[in-house]
Amino acid sequence: MARTWLSVTVELLGGRGEELWPWPGRVFAVGPSHTFMVLANAINDAFARWDRSHLSMFTLADGRVITDEETGAEMAGSVGGPIIAPIDIAAAKVVRTLEPGAEFQFTFDLGDAWTHRCVVGEVKVDPLEVLGIRPDVPLPYWGWGTIPDQYGRRWATDDGQSWAPGKPSRPHPMLLPAWPGQVQVPALDLSGLREAIAAADAARFLAVVTGCDVDDALQQVGAGIPMALEHRRQKAEPVAMSVINRLTWRGGAGDRVLAEDLLAGLRRVPLTGQVVPVDLDMLSTVLEGDPDISSGGYLDLRTGQVYDDSATDPMMVGEEAAIDVAEEPDRWLRLDRTGSRNGWLDMAAFAERQHDAPLRERLEQAIEGKGAFCRFRDLVQAENLSEQWDVFSTDRQMGRAREFLADNGIRVG
Question: Averaged over 245-267, what is the pLDDT?
Answer without folding.
Answer: 92
